[in-house]
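Re: the 252-residue chain
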Amino acid sequence: MAGHSKWANIRHKKAKEDAKRSKVFTKIIKELTVAAKEGVGDPTGNPRLALAIENAKSCNLPKDNIERAIKRGTGELDDSSSFEEVSFEGYGPGGIAYYIEATTDNNNRTVSEIRHIFTKHGGNMGTNGSVSFLFDQKGMICVPSEGLDKENFLLEAIEAGAEDVIVEEGAPLFMVMTERTQLFHVRNNLEATGYTIEQAELVREAMTETKVDAELARANFSMIEKFEENDDVTNVFTNLLMDDETMNAVEE
């Protein structure tokens, strides 16, 4: 896709997330709790929990926090909180599609806050199914690129089971995309090969993207930032597409 950098279109979001370390911890703790609640507390029999534990370790989440989150999910630790996973769909400025994932202990509050952000920033919240058909759920694995040979990594990632590999020049991370059900398997294969895994998670990849200019990009980034500041929101996915020139203009 000449002139269109996949990394350019996600690096803004990645930088925002990295700058909010406490939010990253909150997201991981919620994921540990929900994964333990929906499966079992033993990661050997719960791939989702095993993945969450590895991500927690990669972010240096203290062991005690990991154990408490798991016990909260299995019911061994009763602190009166009960998290559930919810999703929201809608459109932002310029008709950009939004798929938002959240984990909440008060759905009415979260619905109200998400709707308010959509409305305030020139978008509108839709019903379930209104944009989900535009996204495909995939696994995404982030590997620090420093010191790695691009061609060698590409071959070994494919060998590990990757569906697609994004290895752009100058990007601090190589992105490995997998089928949804293969995320845990490919992650383990890459780690066994000797690669450092910064993060591995399920994402929503837009099947059809909408190109925007710098003005529309800024308007959408402003709304994305407000969503990501919300404590209940865990992921924000859009079908926004920028070329390198637009991305550079936005970052000036």
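Residues 1-5 have pLDDT under 50 and may be disordered.
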